Amino acid sequence: MRLDLAFSPTLDYLSQQMAKYEYDLIVIGGGAGGFVSSKLASGLGKRVAMIEKDKLGGECTLYGCIPSKTLIRTSQLAREIRNSKRYGLAMEPPPKINTEGVLPHVRSVVQKVYDSHLPAAFQKLGITVLFGPPRFVDNHQIELNGKRLSAKRFIISTGSSPLIPPIEGLNTIPYLTNETIFSLEQLPPSLIVLGGGPIGAELASAFNLLGVDVSLVHKYDRILNREDPELVERLSQKLTEDGMSLLTGYQPLKFSMKEGQIALALQDAKNQTKEIQAGALLMAIGRKANVEGLDLEKAGIEYTLKGIRTNPTLQTTAPNIYACGDVVGPYRFSHMAEYQAIIATQNALFPFKKRVDYRDVTWTVFTDPEIAHAGLTEEEARKVHGDHIKIYRYEYRHIDRGKTDAAEFGMSKFICDPKGRLIGAHILGARAGEIIHEAQVAKSLGIPFYKLYSVIHIYPTFTDMVKHPAKLCYIDRLRNNPFLKILRRFL
Fold first, then answer.
1. Domains, the chain, ranges and CATH?
2. Digit-coded pLDDT (tens) for 166-212
3. CA 157 remoteness from chain centre
4. For the whole prediction, is pTM greater than 0.85?
């Protein structure tokens, strides 16, 4: 009895602290970042609520990764059917591909993935799932559907949405974004894609292979500005050869409707103008952070349309609130949202803080062919190391798997620092998004590039696009070995 009396004030205090907030953590946003944050916190025994404005899954499941990659795979199959002669197959008579079922198929795959993320699956893990538009009351309270909820910590992972610029006439015509294009009943006969970033390039490539007359308009001199220029030049040539109209260095001036077609007036750097027309328009110029309607200022959170301001631990200007994913940036990919979500959640719940590290960011743009990226481009590497870098290139046409799969277009490019460690890896070609991971592991762990040559690789596979460049690096190392140089003189 004396022991109970001695500890009762402490127990009362802990009970009061636990009762002070309904949840240990509220996660705002039910996409990739929100999924990881809520599951991690719940697994650590915390009381967690996840709030989603509309449907679980976020941009990736509903409007991004899943529908676009499904469309891309379908477009690749259409290309293979048309080019079946490359494999010794003859279609008699030549096949006419009916694409009426393409977009319904895309939506069916989206539904299948969505069904694996239903609220019940999270509730089984002890996570409370709530729907509606939340608004901050202060840094510990939000209002949702007329009710106030409180939490000790918050994580904001509300994602991003299409940026629609103020172009003359745009508000007078119908246009599509990645959030609406997959809802079409059938493919349009022709399409203008405005924007040459990853979303614009991927969807333009896919629709082009499906027989849509595609014009891709980009204001810069080359598409995919973040990618290595040497590989982008090759990709651009391939897209043009496949029938796409690639209009780089053009600014959009004015939209209008002409005889049922969308007309776009363009202007180049020399102030020369031209007009293009199409049956549909896809706006893919950029993204904006989903910060509107949250009343972030009431919680003391600073933000712009580019994103919520965070420090290297992903802490916002409100000390108990963290943020991750597209709403933070700077890399708007689902795998980066998941990476940030782990760090943000750990930092929100534990006293020892971990900083984000973007030195090993990697991604793939799923055009046809794919272009994968890890680390510095050649331009960026030369700015850091000058001419003290070594570049190893290898062509797809030189590997046997490229020949067996009729996938001989493309190149891998690996950039090493003076010590032979990878500082950049770039691959254009079949399965690039899969192949890049071997280089990514070596780069992230600081393994010298030449050591990958000694690793047993299965034959024949596309991993030869890493193995053979690593062999070139290994030979370079032998040539520069002082002992071997002396030995060669005697021999």
1. 20-56+118-162+288-349 (3.50.50.60), 170-285 (3.50.50.60), 369-484 (3.30.390.30)
2. 999 999 999 999 999 999 999 999 999 999 999 999 999 999 999 99
3. 15
4. yes
